[in-house]
Structures are given as C-alpha cells and as structure tokens.
C-alpha cells in the first residue's frame, strides 16, 4: 500500500511525520501521524498507538500533548490516526453535531446503513493501520501498547481488552468508560450498531473486563474538574467492573483538572513511562 508523505518535522531529536493513504477498510483516504525517535534510525522500536477524542483529527495530539519528548527519551514510536473516515461520500450527522459522524467514529465497526460502508474504525485500528505501520516503518510490531482520551480512551480500553495478546499495556485520559450508559455512547452506538443493545456491549469496557484473556497493565487518569465527569465518563463504573473481575487498575483522580489537552499534557510523561515499562519488560 502506497503512502504519501504530507509533512516532516524534526522534534526533540526525532521525526514527527504525517502521511495519507487509501484505506480499503474505510473506503476513503485517511491520514495518520507518526513520531519516530532518533534511535529508530538504527533499530526497530516499540510502538504506542494513540486514539483521540471527539472532534479531533490526527493533529491535535501531535501539536498539543507534548508526548514527543518522552517518546524520544524512552525510544518509542507513537502513531496517531484520525478519529473517523473522511472525504467525499462519507456520511456525517444530518444535524452536524460534534458527537456523531465525522470526527466521531467511536472505534467501532458500524453495521447500519449508511454508516457501515465507511465507519469500520475498529478493523482499521486493529488490522489495517498496524499492518501499514509494520510494513513501512522501523517498529517492532510485537511490542505494541495503546492509549487515548475521552472517546479515544473508550477506544483504547475496548480494543486492548479484546486483544490482550496484541498489546502490552493500556491507559486512558478521561475515558468514556461505559458508552452503553451515557448519552454520547447511546447516540453513537444506537446509530452505528442499531437498536439491539446486546451488540453494544462488544464496545463497552465495563462489559469487557471480565472477558479479557490476559490482565495487561491499565492506568486511567481523570480530572475532578472535568465538565463531562458525572454524565458521560463515569470512571467509577470501570473500577466496579474491574473489582468484580479481579482485574488490576490504577485510577488517579487529579484534583481540579478538566477535559482539555492541558490536563493530558500535565500527565503525559507518566503515561509514556508507564507504557515504556511494559513494552521493555
């Protein structure tokens, strides 16, 4: 599969790159960003996948999170895909809302028309994109971990819990822990997957914890000043599910922090170090 390089910037001694490619899974042209630490010039490096939240593209994390300096320090590649399919013919929310459609793929495989033709983000993140990265960049595909924010935190948790043999660790900032129990998730899953709520549980971290075949390390940071905490995020539901499943989780409630990239940048070093420890164990 061919890649088109869109940009290249030296960053903390490594390279911050952006590419586009034709996606056969999503039936559109997609973009992703990848940071390669300087050590990747001489050897394959572990790879960390970042999943962004509602309204974001691949660029928000790259420009605001400040992760590159820590990825350089620990010798990790970081891949940041877009949050949904894009382009001509890709359907969007008819009302143009921010929480569904473009920029809001929720990392699921849609089964309902008209979404199913393009919105196959679960397969894109777990199959097509990793194969593309392994084929074109100096990464060790057997050493992969995943993290994300909000909708992307939901994506990281559910993808990791369903693929524990593939990822060495998972972490999240302010994740949607149970989309079947919050307005954002109910809207997205209802539209993408249809009215049968049993199918929704395949994309809900609180429903997947006890099905995990391996207990990989899990870290969650949540700000107490987050405006979406009570209605949309509900971290207590994930902790309860982990307790019932005897699944170890580290949840850190960070006083006064909100839902923004200021919050994520403040604790990004901790998350990259957390993954580096698991990836290099």
Describe the structure.
This protein is of the alpha/beta class and 281 residues long. Helices cover 32% and strands 24% of the residues. It contains 9 helices and 9 strands. The protein has helices spanning 59-64, 68-74, 121-136, 151-162, 183-193, 205-208, 229-233, 235-245, 261-279, and strands spanning 4-11, 14-23, 28-36, 45-51, 77-81, 139-149, 167-173, 218-223, 250-254. It has a 9-stranded mixed sheet with strand order 1-2-3-5-4-6-7-8-9, sandwiched between helices. The chain is globular and about 50 Å long.
In short:
The protein is of the alpha/beta class and 281 residues long. It has helices at residues 59-64, 68-74, 121-136, 151-162, 183-193, 205-208, 229-233, 235-245, 261-279, and strands spanning 4-11, 14-23, 28-36, 45-51, 77-81, 139-149, 167-173, 218-223, 250-254.
Write the layout of secondary structure elements.
Layout: E1 4-11, E2 14-23, E3 28-36, E4 45-51, H1 59-64, H2 68-74, E5 77-81, H3 121-136, E6 139-149, H4 151-162, E7 167-173, H5 183-193, H6 205-208, E8 218-223, H7 229-233, H8 235-245, E9 250-254, H9 261-279
| Average pLDDT reading | 97
- Which bin fits the share of residues in helices? 25-40%
Quaternary structure type:
single chain
Q: Which strand order do you get reading across the main beta sheet?
A: 1-2-3-5-4-6-7-8-9
Q: How many whole angstroms does the radius of gyration measure?
A: 17 Å
The total strand number stands at 9
Shape: globular
User: Which stretches are poorly predicted, pLDDT < 50 over at least 5 residues?
Assistant: none
Described by strand count, sense and barrel closure, the largest sheet is: 9 strands, mixed
**Percentage of residues in strands:** 15-25%
Number of domains: 1
